[in-house]
Amino acid sequence: MTNRDPLWARAALWLLFAAYAAEALFFVYWGRPFLDEGVYLAAGGRVYAGWLPYRDFPFSQGPTIAYVVGLFSEIFGSGLLVGRYVSLAACLATGLAAMTLGRRLAGPLAGAVSLVLLMLNLPAMWIGVTVTTQALSTPLVVMAVLFLTSKHTSAIGWAIAPSLLLWSTCIRLTNGLALAVVLIWTAAALARSPRTLLRVTSLLAAQAFALTAPLWLAPRAAYFHILESPLTRSTRGGFQYESLLDRIQGSTGYFSVPETDYFPILPLAGVVLLHLGWRFWRGWRPDGSLPLRDALTGRLALIGFAALVFVPHFALSSGFPSYFATSSILLCIAIASAAPALFGFSTSAATRHPLLRAGAAVAATALLGVSIVDASRERSTYLNLARGGFPHFQQTGRDLSALLGPDCTMVTFQTHLAIEAGCRLLPGLEYSMFSYFTDLADADAESYGVLTPQRLDERIREFRPEAIAVSRRLVGRLRGAPGPSDEHALDFLESVRGNYTLHSKFPVASGLRLPMATGQERMLLFVRNDLTIQ
């Protein structure tokens, strides 16, 4: 925003930002808990206790998130709420960057529409305040694009955008493709300024060396946890794609159909692309120079960045709604920057076309309608104001803490449950269900810090955890088939048989919306027999 905007326009933008902040705060307290939140909080506790990611405990994301989340946990205490406050700050940074970027590309109306679209984007709002890699990496990506619209005169200025993308990649590795493109783009722009290019390269190399230290300190384990394990996860689970088409469908199926929340954003982005294609036919050509000061090129770049940060997910052979969060926000900003032209607020009549404006109106109405329906139905994946929501989850954590006592150890795949109860996780289960392998040799499992059935049995004997909290569904993963009954579900483990008793059953939100999981797991709590229960 600048002083050239009318006072009422600036006031309206800040009022909208205040509404956006209020919605984000609402999601902090009422957004459904997500099992991944415990994974990153557990990693944060480990690194500040002197443990090294990959070498000392399983971790399949970039190392930076563990150190960021762990720093605030060390200062303010562990727990999901502390981690969510960190993500809230990142979410507010995303909103501010989106508003500024929309305003810079197409005026205050585009900045306002950016905030409105973000507020209607329920899955992105939810994931934006949870303790996840997307929550912390998304504002870095959006700010990187914002700095690409600024004029740079120094090496530090030119290094800001690639540095932001480098940090985002060290949080979520799927942003690496966008980083690579911007690095090439920056090098091309500075080809005639070798001294500036050398300085930029030095700044980036120093940051990369520091941020990736845990990777090169344990390269073999890092390769296993970051690449080998995620890329073979579907195969190990007994599911394989037979063709490239099947892989694409599997990677996009959860958010490319009309029933899902992201769907209306895609036709809106399609309208923007049609508008750009029409302008290209009328003689416009993208400005490939840096910085991106041309509004039309900016929209194209936003759509391109949205594709770049999503495409790497095809390699994962799975599709979760959270994967599309960052891309959807970039698309929302691109849509907002086109709104003034498509809806007739542009000063140039040449920027408009009746069919495009009609398509934009239909798609915008669809987005608004689906978002309102989502809010009225209180999607169980994002919000649950009754049983299964965040307040209920916090109460469950307090109940378990009172039951098990201080300094308890828990065996569970629901890492966020152990964190909220104030319990230590059984060493080797830090990365939830993805740190347990049924097809890995015990020697390899030991070198990678993960567990197999035999090693799990040995660890339970060694640490004698006070409690084992597992869902009926994940018991099947432990033993290869569901147990005969809840009471005897874990009897196949010698360490459990006769030493633990089923104490209670209770629901815990998992944060997943999949065909096999509706966002809530029914947990079985086994308590060690010699534990005194008040």
Q: Could you explain how this protein is built, in words?
A:
The chain is mainly alpha-helical. The N and C termini lie far apart (60 Å). The protein has a five-stranded mixed sheet. It is 58% helix and 6% strand. The protein is built from 23 helices and five strands. Helix 20 links the parallel strand 1 and strand 2.
In a nutshell, what does this entry contain?
The chain is mostly helical and 534 residues long. The chain has 23 helices and five strands.
By helix and strand content, what is the structural category? mainly alpha
Give the overall silhouette: globular
Please tell me the overall pLDDT. Answer: 83
Classify the beta-strand content into a percent band: 5-15%
Quantity of strands, as a count: 5
Cα separation of the termini: 60 Å
DSSP helix fraction = 55-70%
Q: Can you count the helices?
A: 23
Biggest sheet overview: 5 strands, mixed
Give descriptors for this structure:
23 helices; globular; mainly alpha; 58% helix
List the helices and strands and how they pair.
Blueprint: H1 7-30, H2 35-47, H3 64-76, H4 80-106, H5 108-120, H6 122-128, H7 133-147, H8 155-169, H9 176-189, H10 194-211, H11 213-217, H12 219-231, H13 233-236, H14 244-252, H15 265-281, H16 295-310, H17 325-342, H18 354-377, H19 390-404, E1 409-412, H20 415-420, E2 424-425, H21 442-448, H22 453-463, E3 467-471, H23 472-479, E4 500-509, E5 520-528
Parallel strand pairs: 1-2, 1-3
Antiparallel strand pairs: 3-5, 4-5
Helix pairs in contact: 1-4, 1-5, 2-3, 4-5, 4-7, 4-17, 5-17, 6-17, 7-8, 7-17, 8-9, 8-10, 15-16, 15-17, 15-18, 16-17
